[in-house]
Write a structure and sequence with these properties.
It is a multi-pass membrane protein. It is found in: Plastid, Chloroplast inner membrane. InterPro entries: CitT-rel, SLC13A/DASS. Belongs to the SLC13A/DASS transporter (TC 2.A.47) family. DIT1 subfamily. Pfam families: Na_sulph_symp. The longest helix is centred in the last third of the chain and has 30 residues. The protein folds into 2 domains: about 70 residues, no CATH class; about 350 residues, no CATH class. The protein contains 22 helices and no strands. The protein is globular, with a radius of gyration of 27 Å. Helix 5 runs antiparallel to helix 10 and helix 6 runs antiparallel to helix 12. The protein is mostly helical.
Length: about 500
């Protein structure tokens, strides 16, 4: 009989672990934003009583439109994808015919925007945008305030050729600002951010709003505003010239005042920047002489802008001028077709602009905008307000409601037609109301870190803290409102706009 103590010790094995069932990672629409957007549309369609003035089709399209806008704000899918899904819903539910749903894709404004994005590609590809900005830095950059003006004025100079504020921010100016800040040993997200980088970032983003308002082709939403205004019967003669003539004085004043105000309320620790012109000149030397493609890009762009200015006299539509310019760039080899194909922002804009313009146009056709406008105008009329008082209330509401939006173009698509219709119903002069709403669309682009594409780009650099973004956003917004109200109203009276 064996001795128990001599037996080999037994090892106890842990019980086998149960395998947890795991779902594959979800790659589709974000469930919560998707659910909220759909619920908003369904509740409005079936729970809110339909006014007797509107048809069922009009009410149903308004419900889909509200769900579309909710999706633009909440982001269940990328903007273009969500717009396409909602457009599909309008066709599947027979709210719109296929032809009506896609009719806006032949719109001249949309193709003008697409062509303008390709011009942006040319500026960045050839390095012409960088060269212009570096010239201004080398001329004005001996101190921090002068450096700021060099960057600000260079953006204003090239803005009519680059209609994407996001492209200007991410493709040209933020890289230059980063380079200048690093040279001055100013780094993001640490104690040195306010040495130089934070001030330059804020100065650039706050003045970019006025640069975008200065020229019709400086921002895509400007073109959208005028197209929607025409849909409401507002006639705008010589669009490019009219826009510039009306905007020039208040926009220039704002551009010149903003860097100084920021210098006082958000001062940089470094006041002198003797190395900035040296750095700019060094980079210009590395670039060498102006190259063939840069000369061609400059000549073609000046020719195109000239055609935009003289278009009314030549009976040449702006989109045709842009097509001629783009054709020259392709024929001369400054751009190739792969450059156009790879410009995703242009094709994305084509998709969702087409959807939003199409829906907004159909809402106008079906009488929804007219119904909303008359309702608000009747309420304002019950307050015994002169048209100017109602106009100020509507402008303020349109401006500050942008805190709820993450896109300027989304804001325009959602609210521009409705607010312009209210202004017209309140007896405000049509051209005056259309243009001022359009300028406001640019001025609220720096309210927050999410209020526009360029705001997100600059905030993402990490130089400015979130509390400063909101504080400076509202201060400069109020300052711009005062400038445009005081300088603008006097100038517009001289022009006979109202």
């Amino acid at each position: 009989m064996s001795n128990p103590s001599s037996e080999l010790p037994t090892t106890t094995r842990p019980p086998p672990r149960r395998r947890r069932f795991s779902f594959p990672s979800w790659k589709g629409a974000k469930p919560i934003p998707l659910a909220i957007s759909i619920i908003i549309g369904l509740v409005f369609r079936f729970a809110v009583p339909k006014p007797h003035q509107l048809t069922t089709k009009a009410w149903q399209l308004l419900a889909i439109f509200l769900a579309t806008i909710a999706g633009l704000v909440l982001g269940p899918l990328p903007v273009g994808a969500w717009a396409f899904v909602c457009l599909t819903v309008t066709v599947v539910t027979k709210t719109l015919t296929f032809a009506a749903a896609f009719s806006a894709f032949t719109n001249e404004v949309i193709w003008l925007i697409v062509a303008s994005f390709f011009f942006s590609r040319g500026f960045i590809k050839t390095g012409l945008g960088d060269r212009i900005a570096l010239y201004f830095v080398s001329w004005l950059g001996k101190n921090t305030l002068g450096l700021s003006y060099g960057l600000v004025l260079s953006e204003a100079a090239i803005s009519p050729a680059i209609p994407s504020t996001t492209a200007r921010a991410g493709g040209i100016f933020l890289p230059i600002i980063k380079s200048l800040a690093v040279t001055a040993e100013s780094h993001p997200k640490d104690g040195s951010a306010k040495k130089l980088g934070a001030y330059l970032v804020q100065s650039q983003i706050q003045t970019a709003s006025s640069s975008s308002a200065l020229f019709l082709t400086a921002a895509a939403q400007n073109l959208l505003c005028l197209k929607l205004a025409e849909g409401l019967g507002v006639k705008i003669p010589s669009k490019w010239v009219t826009w510039l003539k009306v905007a020039c004085l208040p926009a220039v004043v704002s551009i010149m005042v903003t860097p100084v105000v920021l210098y006082k309320i958000f001062p940089p620790e470094m006041k002198d920047t003797p190395d900035a012109p040296i750095m700019a000149k060094r980079r210009l030397e590395q670039m060498g002489k102006i190259k063939r493609d840069q000369w061609l890009m400059l000549i073609v762009m000046l020719l195109t802008v000239g055609l935009w200015i003289a278009g009314e006299a030549l009976k040449l539509a702006s989109v045709i001028a842009a097509m001629l310019g783009l054709s020259l760039l392709l024929a001369l080899g400054v751009l190739d077709w792969n450059d156009c194909l790879s410009e995703k922002s242009a094709w994305d804009t084509l998709a969702w602009f087409g959807v939003l313009i199409g829906m907004a146009t159909q809402l106008t056709t079906l009488g929804v905008v007219d119904w909303m406008s008359k309702g608000v105008a009747h309420f304002l009329g019950s307050l015994s307000l002169h048209w100017s008082g109602a106009f100020c209330i509507l402008q303020a509401a349109y401006f500050f409601i942008h805190y709820l939006f993450a896109s300027q173009t989304g804001h325009v698509a959602a609210l521009y037609s409705a607010f312009l219709g209210m202004c017209l119903a309140s007896k405000a002069p049509g051209l005056f109301a259309a243009l001022v709403l359009g300028y406001n669309t640019n001025l609220f682009g720096a309210l927050t870190h999410y209020s526009s594409g360029q705001a997100a780009v600059y905030y993402g650099a990490g130089y400015v803290e979130l509390r400063d973004v909101f504080k400076l956003g509202i201060i400069i917004a109020i300052m711009n409102i005062i400038i445009w109200a005081v300088v603008g109203v006097g100038w517009w009276k001289i022009l006979g706009l109202y």
